[in-house]
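Running this now, will post back.
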Amino acid sequence: MITLTSAAQDALTKVMTEKGLDDYALRVFVSGGGCSGLSYGMTFAEGPDIGDQVFEAGTVKVVIDPGSISYLDGAEIDYIDSLMGGGFRIENPNAVRSCACGSSFQTSANEQGTPCSH
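Update: finished.
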C-alpha cells in the first residue's frame, strides 16, 4: 500500500482540478534507469489497467502496476512547498540508497547504479 500526506493530496487535487482531470487517478510507477538504477514516475491516468493495484488517499485515487508495487509497498508521497526545491517527494522504505535528486533509488535486490550527476 502507498500513502499520500495531506499536503500531497491537496497539491494533487489542485493540479487535477486546474487541468480538468477530476475523474482521473494518479499513476505511480517505477522504471529502470536513473542515477541509482531505478526511477520513480507519476502521471495521471483515466483509470486502472488490468492487474493494477488501486488505493484511495482522501479524494485522490492512486493506481500502481503489478511490476512497480513491490518497489513501492509502504511508500509515502509528500509535497514540499519550498524556495529551495519544492515538489513531490517519495519516502520509500524499500530503498537502501537514494540519489540526491530524489527521483531515483536502489533496493538491495538491484545492482549498483551510476554516480549521481545532480
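The chain is about 15% helix and 35% strand. More later if anyone needs it.
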